[in-house]
Amino acid sequence: MAGETVSTQAVGPQLGLTDLAEERVLDDLPVEGELPPWLAGSLLRTGPARWDVGDRSVNHWFDGLAMLHRFTFGAGGVSYANRFLRSRAFEAAEREGRLAYREFATDPCRSAFRRIASVFRPSAELTDNGSVNVHRLGEQWLSLTETPMPVEFDPRTLETLGVGPAPPGHHTTAHPHDDGGELWGHAVRFGARSHYLIYAQRPGERRVVARHAVRRPAYQHSFALTPRHAVLAEGCFVADPLHLALGGRTFAESFTWDPSRGGRLLAFDRATGATAGSWETDPFFCFHHVNAFEDEGDIVVDLLAFDDAAIVGALALGRLRAGEEVPLPELRRFRLRGDGGRVTPERLCDHRFELPVTHYARVNGRRHRWVWGVGASDGWFDEIVKVDVDTGHATTWRQPGAYPGEPVLAARPGGEDEDDGVLLSVVLEPERGASSLVVLDAATLDELARAQVPHHIPFGFHGHFTEEVS
What we know:
Layout: E1 25-26, E2 31-33, E3 41-50, E4 52-53, E5 56-57, E6 65-74, E7 77-84, H1 88-96, H2 112-120, H3 122-125, E8 133-137, E9 140-144, E10 151-153, E11 160-163, E12 171-172, E13 177-179, E14 182-189, E15 194-202, E16 205-214, E17 224-225, E18 229-234, E19 237-239, H4 241-246, E20 255-257, E21 263-269, E22 275-281, E23 285-295, E24 298-306, H5 310-314, H6 317-321, E25 330-336, E26 340-342, E27 346-347, E28 354-357, H7 360-363, E29 370-375, E30 383-388, E31 394-397, E32 403-404, E33 408-411, E34 421-429, E35 434-441, E36 447-452, E37 463-466
Parallel strand pairs: 22-26
Antiparallel strand pairs: 1-7, 2-36, 3-6, 3-37, 4-5, 6-7, 8-9, 9-10, 10-11, 12-14, 13-14, 14-15, 15-16, 17-18, 18-21, 19-20, 21-22, 23-24, 24-25, 25-27, 28-29, 29-30, 30-31, 32-34, 33-34, 34-35, 35-36
């Protein structure tokens, strides 16, 4: 689908959907306020930064060419660097002036043969455009998307180092879980008999823990992990693998909303790979799990649920650039009892938000109290939200006319409380025509400091704070 390039003079949130061409290394950003003296390390982020290639635009926010960003803290200051991920997809776009690899909702394939190859042969046409998340595997840092093509990069220079160790399957999560240095993930292998896969990965080693056959696999972006179980949330946005290969549609368009089948949650025993339970629920769609834990024999799963899959189309690039509003999900808790049956979720909070963040190192797989995210009071993400899941109370931070991204938690070393630390959020400031990294007290949401970047940073998705990169 052809599209117009948004002017660099775009105002409001549309500036965050404008291409960024410059790559820079800045040793000392201007800082307002005072950074905590204990804050040392780096925030690493990825996200789309170029949606317009040659004479066309990609179809969807997710499909822009990935750019890495690094904010490094130390001695009371902040340095910054950004660099395009030199993926095969990026190099082909630079060389040929066109999109060459299949993205989430943009497909340059013209023939049925190439489309079949791109679905059933991961090395053929699947993109390695790691625009969704960054994660660590041993000493490697990987930029991830939803194909089994992770790209390794240097966390200090942001130099692209090549394709990293591949997960199994054709479609995989960009939200693996770190469990003692072992990455746990889920994937889908499409075929005449498709399978959900749960896998665990160490440097140089990968094992498939569980397989579950499915006729019409559902789109799944993330999953949950407890000490004993891996939990998949199977919504009603489903694909027929044959149509996926031959239908002449993009990957996203190959999925259809089918509420007649209802929603389902599946749990797998991490030790044996056996199915531990299957629970039916009302139709839903989900991008992000928040957390899961075990409570007196029950599995408790918190996730952000939509009533349908309209959000997928709402995030189309043309609709976002036109200023259309996006729906937001609801924080729901599912208590899974026994080995199956029907489950009715509990709404934990009236305030809706996305891009959830917890104190991952402390609470993942265990009972938690706090979750942070971004909310939208006026059509686009314009506030940071903190939710107490025990009471449902929500606290917000907002800067008029500004648009924050995912609030990544940097926990205070030695801190005793779950919310002892700071939140790091890249905030678009259209009036300045640029972005800032804003540092908030994670407990109170009071602003402590902000480091100003001299250009805008396009809207991205996920990042990772590490004390080991400085």
